[in-house]
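Sat 14:20. Reprocessing the chain from the morning session after the first attempt stalled halfway. Input below, unchanged.
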Amino acid sequence: MSLRSNRTILPAAVLGGSLLVIAGMIPVRADAVPAKAPLTSTYVLSERWSPAGGLSDQARTTLERSPLARAALRLYEPFETGDMTTYDRLLTEGFVDVPLAPGQGPGREGMKAHVRDDIVATFPDLKIRIEAIHVAGRVVTVRTVISGTQVRPFLGVPATHKVLSYRAVDVHQFNHHRQIARTDHLEDFFGAYRQMTQPSQSARRAG
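Finished this time. Tokens:
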């Protein structure tokens, strides 16, 4: 049996789910401390991407219980971070997006270009709030609220530099590899258009 030096002072560490405090005056068997803490399958929100817009209680509970819901959540990460590499793992190469945006190409690469060039570039401070997530077999339905400052033309309206907020519903179909093969989506673009085109309160008062 070998002992670690009693001159070494280490901070508290979580090993194997229990708290182990190693003090300088207490010798510790070298073979009593595992080289690496065991992996856990428990979903810990702080260790994964979390939307800046927040999560409802229902969404949080579903994410804790469903690996497929956690996979679906990652589709929204590039909208806030601008990092499209997430889609290389999450979407199938032939991913189907219904309906395609004007000018959007097909497949995974088309989705990456659309999110990067049309969404992130138009709303650089975009935030997504996850209102609800429902899982049925390999189908995950996500209800969101999308908010951001419009700095480029959107829906034919020149940049207003207003903060827009509109709702969306996405239905994601997964394959057996937990990749999204198809997404059908509906957005409240009428609500977004109305926010862009209606006069501000200060303008109405001035008129």
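Residues 1-46 have pLDDT under 50 and may be disordered.
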